[in-house]
Design goal:
479 residues; alpha+beta; 6-stranded mixed β-sheet; 14 strands
Length: 479
């Protein structure tokens, strides 16, 4: 049964252990900062009832239950294209901010389906049955699911079992007849504090000596032993006036260091427990899905930057200048290369033979993601070059509200005659939000989130077929 936003928010008041700036948060839905990412996720639940989006955002599963389309396994090119379109549509309706509440969890579910099916066939285990039952629980309960993959890692030159502290990767500390007990921590886990469930998966390849670290499972966020320490959301804290944060005061994401202190997980929610040879496959399969989602939402973020840059350039009276035109093309490229990569990945999709799940072409996905990683900072430079210095130095919303200062600002912030001083001022405040309040945060996430540059490079070289070109080389050598 689908829930609305209010019902989702009610479910977050469950005694979860969340800290913000050293203080235990009694209720994330009422906290002055964390209520914003909570409401951001709640919006996705409400969008399922939106007349414009509902026909594609709502579907039924094989039992006839009404569920979110995000929780229906893709089985074709059309299904993958629909998923990409829905990520774009819900990102636009969330003021250009990715709304991951059901996307990232389903990214992990598809990876779990594919990998556990292969594991069961190889080992005779029944992990896939557990995944199917958990998938039904999430879809029918309309749950928001966060994914905890990145371990804190300690000394990166050492494998998990070689670390001085064994808890620097999440591990199985104890195996019991009724389940496992896990310990460790996962870093920068997006929206964990405002999710219903956590899916935990490995972050890397593992050796037989790392068997305790080859673990995947799902737990409620409020499970005993889980503590979430939130990053300081300086972009939201810095938006002291409503007009200074037109996005971040309403739609934003948060991250947490998630600590597992002897958390009990029943066997029915354990999807990997020591099978080290499948840890890497699970990590990479999830990364594929998550990067497909990434290039879908990032296309929308780039089109926002392009449109804002053009609006400011027009307000400044320089939209027809050659350097502005080149900058706008740089921003258009960022948007459209990612969109093309997502669509081509869907057209070149493959069908997993054991589950029937259609998964996007890895080469196209990683090409789009690598382009995004390596061009975001140059696109930001292009945006700033269009906007100019007021993107950083514009006065505050409080100055604008001051009766003596507003006429002064209206006079001196006027640009092109057809654009009012107020509109130009608001354009610059939105620009400052993008490159100032959000700049440091997004400069890191757009380069590193959903996988590093090196991760995409490795996958591109691993997946590219050189054979056709090699045949031409051989022909030329033999000529």
């Amino acid at each position: 049964m689908l829930r609305n936003g209010a019902q989702f928010l009610e479910g977050l008041v469950d005694g979860r252990r969340v800290y913000y700036r050293g203080e235990l948060v009694a209720d994330v839905t009422r906290h002055p900062v964390l209520q914003v990412p909570a409401r951001h996720s709640a919006l996705l639940f409400d969008l399922h009832f939106d007349p414009e989006l509902q026909p594609e955002l709502v579907t039924t599963d094989d039992t006839g239950e009404t569920i979110s389309t995000f929780y229906r396994a893709p089985a074709s090119t059309d299904d993958l294209l629909r998923r990409s379109r829905l990520i774009e549509a819900t990102t636009r309706r969330s003021r250009g901010v990715f709304n991951i509440a059901k996307v990232i969890g389903s990214d992990a579910l598809w990876a779990l389906h594919i990998v556990t099916a292969a594991l069961d066939r190889s080992r005779g285990t029944d992990y896939r049955r557990r995944v199917l039952e958990y998938h039904r629980h999430v879809a029918h309960g309309d749950r928001a699911v966060s994914v905890a993959q990145t371990d804190v890692k300690g000394d990166r030159s050492l494998r998990p079992h070689q670390q001085a502290d064994p808890d620097l990767y999440v591990r199985i500390r104890e195996r019991r007849s009724d389940g496992i007990v896990v310990r460790g921590a996962k870093a920068h886990i997006t929206q964990a504090q405002v999710a219903d469930e956590l899916i935990v998966i490995p972050s890397r390849s593992l050796t037989p000596e790392d068997a305790d670290y080859a673990v995947a499972f799902a737990v409620p966020v409020h499970a005993p032993g889980i503590t979430m320490i939130t990053r300081p959301m300086v972009e939201l804290e810095g938006a002291l006036h409503p007009v200074e944060g037109p996005r971040v005061r309403y739609n934003t994401l948060t991250e947490a260091l998630v600590v597992f202190d002897d958390v009990f997980v029943p066997w029915e929610r354990v999807f990997l427990a020591g099978e080290t040879e499948y840890a890497s496959r699970l990590a990479l399969t999830f990364a594929l899905w998550h990067r497909f989602s990434a290039i879908s939402y990032r296309a929308v973020q780039a089109e926002l930057m392009a449109a804002l840059a053009r609006e400011i350039a027009e307000a400044n009276g320089i939209a027809d200048k050659s350097h502005v035109r080149r900058n706008l093309v740089e921003l258009i490229l960022l948007a459209e290369v990612q969109r093309m990569a997502a669509h081509l990945a869907a057209y070149r999709c493959r069908i997993d033979p054991l589950t029937g799940i259609a998964y996007p072409d890895p080469l196209c996905v990683n090409l789009g993601k690598l382009y995004s990683n390596t061009h975001y900072l140059s696109a930001t430079q292009a945006f700033i070059d269009c906007a100019g210095g007021l993107a950083a130095t514009a006065p505050s919303g409080d100055d604008w509200a001051h009766p003596d200062l507003r006429p002064v600002l209206e006079k001196y912030l006027t640009g092109r005659a057809t654009v009012s001083g107020e509109r130009r001022f608001r354009l610059f405040l939105l620009a400052r939000e993008l490159v100032g309040l959000l700049g440091g945060y997004e400069n890191v996430t757009m380069v590193h989130a959903e996988g590093s540059i090196e991760a995409s490079v490795i996958e591109i070289l691993r997946g590219y077929d050189f054979s056709a070109g090699r045949r031409i080389v051989e022909e030329l050598l033999g000529a």
